[in-house]
Prior knowledge:
Helix content is 77%, strand content 2%. It has 280 residues and is mainly α. The chain starts with a helix and ends with a helix.
Amino acid sequence: MFLLAAVYGAAYFSMFLLLGIIGYIFSRGFRILSLRFFTSVTSAWRGTVGIGGSLVNTLYIIVLTLAVAVPVGVGAAVYLNEYAQPGILVRSIEFATETLAGIPSVIFGLFGMVLFVDVLGMGYSLLSGAATLALMVLPLIVRNTQRALRTVPEGYRNGALGLGAPKWHLIRTILLPSAMPGILSGLVLAVGRIIGESAALLFTAGSARLLPRLGGGLLRNLSVLSRKASESGGTLAVELYLQMQNGEFEAAFGIGCVLILLALVLNIAMRLAGAAGRGA
């Protein structure tokens, strides 16, 4: 009876702790949220405080990072779980992913600055930041995808192979859809780490707050948006750090509110996409 009460108490304490943190942040930062806050940029010359540029940069970083990390991470997990034979190679790969997962983010930032910014000549840009974050979240995606694939009943594999289904057809039509909830859980954790990362991005992507200058036709707008990825840009987490450093606590708490809302929206969107994929 005591252990059951302790388990329930721990669960409810975790829930109330989360609600308390969210409530405190929103009580401090909700007042600054406005349309101007979302669409302008912070400028001492104009006397404005806004996150428009940082919000766009954050979305760029999320899309670019997942575009690199998801195919590589899911592919590596499929290889390790479905194709590779147990041996020194598999153990070495799993050891490497476990080691990468434990490296501090600032070390990734230093590595990304040397490799992507200097050696490869990508400069301080969203591309450099996304490539660095892809290395950071890759172990998370690989491990969660492996665990999700291992939860698929072995009878699914034996039944499909017994009916003559090719290996890749089995993986594409049965294993991956069945493991999709676990894979999406890993992606949600990866997005959370991408949104909240600041140290690595300060070394690789910079802290610029500029909004892309749109207008003048579709082709020109597409060109501006594509060039944006090669420009320096600070995300919401970087902007929050800079605002706290400057003593602008109200703006920092406002950015915290936006980060929580963004994480919540992306979480819901991924779960809806996964449910739609399983329904199809």
